[in-house]
């Protein structure tokens, strides 16, 4: 198929899809040609020491890109973090306003001292252009505004340089450049000011400018803040306050009343971020509420208005207006296979706030289970590669959740709520549940797969299960057992063996929700050895390594022979071990006689890839996203919340957790000697709150064909 020439100066950013021939998610390129089958070939821009010189980037699907103007591409290139580039694109109004910034426009930028207001002074070109195809990066020189309403008397040479991602707010260009300051009961007389565009900055749309002009008109009416002042405000209300300089801050009302020395009603607001000059809830000499330092703002109630970011009010009069331009397209291909997130892209795709699966109404058990099983696991990937059953809406919804997670790194609560509604039981919509209950429904009813593990009790027939529950007496184990010890003891005590090596083994700890746990701490086993737990499989003697013929349950806790480990013996070692007076009462059991072989007995191991934890009725998870020992993530679907229970929403968060890799790289004996209180916060949380350990066997990926019919 012959390619057709592309329009010159056409830039793009890759917003989704697997890394392909040089282009990966977040990369910026320039189109060279576009084929009729919807593929782009182009140049890839990579930042160098002095210039941004392009190199051949290969091909990328057009549907996996978003078109950029030259100016937009230059601004985004100065944003070094790929995830921050994509986050900025997800806020179209802010990005449009940033692209329109003019000289002396007022902005709020991220700084090591917090969020500070400042004036844009220069648009700076970064990098030396050595060739005609080179592309400068663009950044902003910003002059900070003092909190005493005067510009800084000492202007640091040179002015600090900020990228587009550092700008958190663009203030409508009508205000006198003052600091954050509120006068009692009046706005201070806002006036529009003339501005001059710098370097003929391109206008990428009228929406942002029109929005700013509308805000100007609203703000000059009777000196009131924009939006309806008729909506009653109370403690817990989400509000915004506009300063005399035009900077808007957002927060939650934590106190209402008349402070000492005032005659009218004031509001104490806990802000979303630190603002210089604010307190920790103290006004004057009195503490009215408590929050982080530099977060408490006290203003007259008349200066407050409902948060315009959440325009739907409790009265139902407000309406939520979508943005004119959706820079990151909605997910529209739920049936198309999306591979697991590779290790090299996991941090840029997944780490941060509003990442992972958004929690909503007791959904944490479901959110962490889906995230742990399907975001990065290669073993479970075969399930997602099979064609979606279009006659079953729930399977399409499930596929959409997995693909959103793998491509965009975020699944909104509404997608998961649709899935919960399709599970067929009303309790899944609102009630708290445990992961094992959801896992059974997921594999049995949604994926229509039989049990993942096959267990044999004694000589009985094989029985199936989706998870393995540890059962034992507390006296059988020490105070801080490992998962290996717990599994060995539980299987041997219950006379259970695995019929075959599972592709996925989910081991549930001896605890019940947040109400009871048998052990205060459990040591994770990163490589689970199940060789001695396989039915009718050759095993080696615990002492000499020859073919084993006996095993002894009573030897399991023997402190002289690695307590907690299964002890298979050959005939000679069995006789010698049980000749000791302390073991003469033991009853070793003969093992099935396997075929004789001179080859060494193979070891069958499984790799830890996720841990579900619970604390105070809330589930979180740890995920290993690649082979590197430090490739661990921590996921909380409700890490934070914006607003109250009625009108707010949960903020999911994923954090990189390399310190867990450091801890797990130690021998189990060293981990057992570590006191949890001396370990990092997330490591301590895993040790104390572990609920279910998830293991996989990469050599035998899970497939639907091997698990089609449930076992009876």
From TrEMBL:
One of its GO terms (cellular component) is perinuclear region of cytoplasm. Signal peptide: none annotated. The keyword Isomerase does not apply. Pfam families: CAP_GLY, UCH. InterPro entries: CAP-Gly_dom_sf, CAP-Gly_domain, Papain-like_cys_pep_sf, Peptidase_C19_UCH, USP. Keywords: Cytoplasm, Hydrolase, Metal-binding, Phosphoprotein, Protease, Thiol protease, Ubl conjugation pathway, Zinc. Residues 257-300 form the CAP-Gly domain. GO terms for molecular function: cysteine-type deubiquitinase activity; metal ion binding. Its main location: cytoplasm. It is an enzyme of class 3 (hydrolase). Belongs to the peptidase C19 family. PANTHER family: 40S RIBOSOMAL PROTEIN S3A. This is ubiquitinyl hydrolase 1. The lineage of its organism: Eukaryota, Metazoa, Chordata, Craniata, Vertebrata.
């Amino acid at each position: 198929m012959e390619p057709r020439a592309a329009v010159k100066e056409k830039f793009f950013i890759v917003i989704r899809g697997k890394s392909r021939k040089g282009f990966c998610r977040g990369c910026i390129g320039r189109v060279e040609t576009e084929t009729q089958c919807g593929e782009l070939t182009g140049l890839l821009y990579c930042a160098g020491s002095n210039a941004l010189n392009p190199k051949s980037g290969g091909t990328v699907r057009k549907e996996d890109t978003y078109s950029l103007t030259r100016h937009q591409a230059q601004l985004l290139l100065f944003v070094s973090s790929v995830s921050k580039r994509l986050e900025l694109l997800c806020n179209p109004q802010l990005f449009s306003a940033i692209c329109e910034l003019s000289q002396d426009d007022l902005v709020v930028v991220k700084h090591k001292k917090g969020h500070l207001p400042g004036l844009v002074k220069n648009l700076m070109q970064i990098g030396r252009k050595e060739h005609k195809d080179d592309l400068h990066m663009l950044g902003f020189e910003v002059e900070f505004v003092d909190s005493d309403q005067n510009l800084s008397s000492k202007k640091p040479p040179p002015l600090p340089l900020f990228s587009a991602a550092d700008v958190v707010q663009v203030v409508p260009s009508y205000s006198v450049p003052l600091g954050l300051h509120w006068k009692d009961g009046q706005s201070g007389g806002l006036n529009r000011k003339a501005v001059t565009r710098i370097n003929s900055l391109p206008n990428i749309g009228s929406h942002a400018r029109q929005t700013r002009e509308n805000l100007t008109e609203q703000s000059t009416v009777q000196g009131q803040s924009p939006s309806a002042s008729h909506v009653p405000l109370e403690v817990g209300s989400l509000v915004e306050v506009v300063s005399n300089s035009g900077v808007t801050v957002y927060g939650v009302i934590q106190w209402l009343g008349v402070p000492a020395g005032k005659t009218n009603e004031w509001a104490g607001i806990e802000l979303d971020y630190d603002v210089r000059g604010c307190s920790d809830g103290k006004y004057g000499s009195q503490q009215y509420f408590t929050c982080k330092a530099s977060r408490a703002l006290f203003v007259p109630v008349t200066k407050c208005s409902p948060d315009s970011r959440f325009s739907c009010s409790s009265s139902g009069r407000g309406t939520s207006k979508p943005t004119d331009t959706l820079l990151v397209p909605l997910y529209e291909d739920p049936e198309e296979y999306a591979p697991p997130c590779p290790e090299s892209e996991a941090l840029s795709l997944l780490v941060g706030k509003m990442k992972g699966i958004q929690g909503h109404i007791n959904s944490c058990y479901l959110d962490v289970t889906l995230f742990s099983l399907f975001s990065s696991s290669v073993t479970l990937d075969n399930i997602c590669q099979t064609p979606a059953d279009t006659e079953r809406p729930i399977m399409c919804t499930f596929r959409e959740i997995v693909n959103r997670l793998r491509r965009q790194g975020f699944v909104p609560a509404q997608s998961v709520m649709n899935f919960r509604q399709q599970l067929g039981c009303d309790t899944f919509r609102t009630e708290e549940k445990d992961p094992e209950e959801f896992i059974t429904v997921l594999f049995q009813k949604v994926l229509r797969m039989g049990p993942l593990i096959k267990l044999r009790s004694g000589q009985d027939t094989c029985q199936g299960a989706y998870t393995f529950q540890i059962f034992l007496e507390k006296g059988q184990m020490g105070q801080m057992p490992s998962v290996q010890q717990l599994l060995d003891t539980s299987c041997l005590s219950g006379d259970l063996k695995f019929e075959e090596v599972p592709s996925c083994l989910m081991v549930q700890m001896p605890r019940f929700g947040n109400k009871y746990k048998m052990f205060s701490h459990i040591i994770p086993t990163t490589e689970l050895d199940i060789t001695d737990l396989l039915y009718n499989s050759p095993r080696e003697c615990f002492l000499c390594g020859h073919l084993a013929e006996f095993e002894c349950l009573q030897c399991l806790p023997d402190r002289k022979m690695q307590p907690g480990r299964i002890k298979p013996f050959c005939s000679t070692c069995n006789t010698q071990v049980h000749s000791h007076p302390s073991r003469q009462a033991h009853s070793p059991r003969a093992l099935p006689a396997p075929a004789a072989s001179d080859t060494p007995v193979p070891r069958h191991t499984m790799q830890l890839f996720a841990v579900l934890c619970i604390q105070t009725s809330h589930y979180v998870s740890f995920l290993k996203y690649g082979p590197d020992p430090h490739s661990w993530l921590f996921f909380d679907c409700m890490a934070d919340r914006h607003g109250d229970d009625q009108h707010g929403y949960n903020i999911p968060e994923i954090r990189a957790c390399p310190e867990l890799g450091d801890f797990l790289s130690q021998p189990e004996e060293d981990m057992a000697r570590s006191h949890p209180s001396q370990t990092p916060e997330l490591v301590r949380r895993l040790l104390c709150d572990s609920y279910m350990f998830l293991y996989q066997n990469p050599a035998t990926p899970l497939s639907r064909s091997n698990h089609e019919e449930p076992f009876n």
